[in-house]
Amino acid sequence: MKRPLEASVEGRGRIVGITDGVFAIALTLIVLEIRVPAHEVIHSEHDLLAAIAALAPRFLTYALSFLTLTIFWFGQQAQHGLIAKSDRRLATLNLCFLAFIALLPFSTDLLADFLEFRTAVLVYWLNLLMLGITLFVSWRYAEKSGLVAEDVDAETKRTVYLRIVKAQILWAVGAALCLITPLASVGFILVVQLIYAATPNVKWVRRIIG
Amino acid sequence: MKRPLEASVEGRGRIVGITDGVFAIALTLIVLEIRVPAHEVIHSEHDLLAAIAALAPRFLTYALSFLTLTIFWFGQQAQHGLIAKSDRRLATLNLCFLAFIALLPFSTDLLADFLEFRTAVLVYWLNLLMLGITLFVSWRYAEKSGLVAEDVDAETKRTVYLRIVKAQILWAVGAALCLITPLASVGFILVVQLIYAATPNVKWVRRIIG
Amino acid sequence: MKRPLEASVEGRGRIVGITDGVFAIALTLIVLEIRVPAHEVIHSEHDLLAAIAALAPRFLTYALSFLTLTIFWFGQQAQHGLIAKSDRRLATLNLCFLAFIALLPFSTDLLADFLEFRTAVLVYWLNLLMLGITLFVSWRYAEKSGLVAEDVDAETKRTVYLRIVKAQILWAVGAALCLITPLASVGFILVVQLIYAATPNVKWVRRIIG
Amino acid sequence: MKRPLEASVEGRGRIVGITDGVFAIALTLIVLEIRVPAHEVIHSEHDLLAAIAALAPRFLTYALSFLTLTIFWFGQQAQHGLIAKSDRRLATLNLCFLAFIALLPFSTDLLADFLEFRTAVLVYWLNLLMLGITLFVSWRYAEKSGLVAEDVDAETKRTVYLRIVKAQILWAVGAALCLITPLASVGFILVVQLIYAATPNVKWVRRIIG
Hints:
Oligomer: homotetramer
Keywords (chains A, B, C, D): Ion channel, Ion transport, Membrane, Potassium, Potassium channel, Potassium transport, Transmembrane, Transmembrane helix, Transport
Order of helices and strands of chain A: HHHHHHHH
Structural class of chain A: mainly alpha
Shape of chain A: globular
GO cellular component, one term (chains A, B, C, D): membrane
Number of strands of chain A: 0
Family (chains A, B, C, D): Belongs to the TMEM175 family.
Radius of gyration of chain A: 20 Å
Largest sheet of chain A: none
Low-confidence stretches of chain A: none
Strand content of chain A: under 5%
Number of helices of chain A: 8
Protein name (chains A, B, C, D): Putative integral membrane protein
Main location (chains A, B, C, D): membrane
Number of domains of chain A: 1
C-alpha cells in the first residue's frame, strides 16, 4: 500500500530538483550585485575603465561565493550520490541546508560592502558553519535511518564526516585570522576554496582536505 | 493514438518540474528582502553589529516563510506521490496552487514590515487558506477522476484530506489570536510551522497534525 | 556513430527542462511588481487596508498573466507531448518562444501601469501574437521534419494548428476592442483566458476553443 | 563499492539540471533591464509610443544576448551529448562555464548602456572569450580522461574543438572592428550570432561555422 511521504526514490529525485534550482538561482543572484555604472558619471573610455576597475572587490567576492557554492554543491552531491532513498525528515534537513545556501548571497554582499569589518567576516563564517552543520546532521540521520545505499562501506561513511569536519576546521582558522585583520581571513578562506575547487593531485593537500 | 494533453505520466513529470522551480525561486526570493545595511551609516564594528541585529524581524519572517514553504512543498509532494498520472485540469489546479506560493514572498514582506497590524496577519493567513483550498480541491479532483494510483487505499485518501483540514484549523486559530494582538498570531503560527517541519514522534502531537 | 546535436530524445528532455525553468521564473517575477506599501505612509489598520486595496489592478494583471502563462505552458506541452525527438532548429524555435515568454512580465507591467492606453494593450497583444507565431512555426517544422511521434494521426496534427489559430483570432478580436476602450480589450482577453484555463465541458465553448 | 563523487551517470544528470537552471534564469534576467516607463512622464498615447520606441537599444541587446545564450546552450549541449559520464573536475569546469553565463546579463547591460564605448564592447567580448575557453578546456579534459562516450569517433572530437575556435575567431574579428567604431563591432557580432542561431543550409556558411 502506498502511504503519503514514506521513504522513496521519488522523494530523493525531488530533493535533487529543488537543490539544483536553489543553487542555480544563488549562482545567478550573487552576480546581480555587480551593477553597471550610472551613465551620468561616465564621460570617456577612461571613466568607464576606471568604473569597471572599481568593481574589482565585487568580482573578488563573486569569485569567493561562486567557489563556496561549488564546494557545497559537491558536498550535497557527495552525500546524495550515496543515499538510496529519502524520507520527510531527510528532506527537511536538506531544505534547512538550502535555506543557508539561499542566505549566502546576503552574507557575500555584506562581506563585499564591509571587507574591513570583523563582523562581516564572522557572519560569512557563521553561514559556512551552519552549512557544515546541516550537512553533518543530514548524513548522520541518513546513516542511522538506513537510507544510505547498501554498497557503501564503513570507510566511505567515515570519509563523508571527515571531509565536513576538516573543511570546517580550515574555515574556523580562517575566521580566527580576523583577530589580526579581516582581509587576512578573506584571503585565507579564498585560498582554501580555490584548493577545494581545484582538488589538486598533491599528496599532502589530499591528506588535509580528505 | 496520441492526443494532445490527455492524462499522462509525462504530464505528471512536468508538474513536478515547474513546482520545484517555483519553490526554489520562492525560497530564494524571500531572502532578497534581507538587505545589507547602507555603507554610509556604518562607522564601527558596533554600528554594523547593531544594524545586523536590527534585521532580526526579517530573519524571523524568513524562518516563518521558509517553514511554510517546506510544509506546502511536502503537502504537494504527499499528494503527487499518490497520483499516477495528471490531466490538464489537475495541472491547472496545481498551477493555481503555485500562483499562491508565488504570492508568499509578498505576504511575508507585508508581515515583516507591519508586524503590529492585524491586516498584515490576515493577508498572510488568507494566503495560507488559499494554499489549503487549492490543495484540497486538487486532491478531490484527482480522486474523483481516477488519477490516484490504484494501490492507494481509502484510509490514505481520507488522511490527505484530514491533514489539510487540521492544518487550516490550527492556522485559523492562529489568525483569530490577532484579535488579542498580532504578535500572538505570528508566534502561534510559527510554533505550528515548527511542529509540522520537525514532525516529532510524540503521540498527542501526531494525533493533532495527523 | 554519435554526432553533436543530432535529433535526439535527450535534446527533447533538455527543452522541457529549460522551458519549465523559464515558466517557473516568469510566474514568480510577475509577482515582484506587487510591492509592499512603504511603512512611512501607513499609520493605521485603515491606511494599510486602503493601500492593499489600491494594489487591486496589480492583482488583476497578475491573474491575467498567470492565466496567459498557464495557457502557453499547456500549448507548449501539447506540442511536445506529441513530439518524439528534437533537433537543433526545433530547439531554437522553442527558445524563441521562451524569449517571448520572458518578455511577458514586461508587457504585463506595462499593461498594469497604463491600463487606459491603447499602446499598452497593443504591446500585450503583440506579445501574445509572437507566442502564437513561434508555436505555429515550431509545430510546422516538427511535422515537416518527421520529429512528430509516429502514432499521431492527421486529425490530431490539424487540431494543434486549429487551436493556435482560434486562440489568436479571439485575442485579435480582444485587441480590436481597444478601438472602443482599452478596458474592454483587457476584460475580453481576461474572459478568454479564464475560459481556456477552466476548459469547461460546454459544447459550444468546446467548438470555439477547439 | 560506491565512493563519493566518482565519475558517474548521475553526476552528468546533475550538471544538466544546474545548467538548464542557470540558462533559464539568465534568459529571464536580461529582460528585467527593459523597464516600463515611469507613469508620471506619460500623458498621451504618443508619449507612451515614444517611450517604448526609446527602449529599442534595450530590445536590440536583449536579442543579442538571447542569441548568445542560445549558442552557448547548444555549445554545452553538443559536448554533453557526447559525454557518457562526469567526474568532479569536469563538473567544476562546467560550473566555471556557468559562472561566465551568469555574468552575461552584466556584460549585456553594460553594452546596452554604453554602446558608444569601446570598453563596453571589449568587456562583452572578454565574456564570450572566457565562455569559449571554459568550453574548450572542458572538452579537452573530458577527452583526455576517457569521459567521452565510446561511439564518438576522432573526427567528431575534432569538430567540437574546431567549432569553438572558429566562433572565437569570428568574435575576435568583431571585437577588433571597435577600432573603427564600437557600433560596427556590435553589428558584426549580431550578424554572427544570427547565422549561428539560424544555421542556414548554405555551403560556404556551413564551411565557416563548421
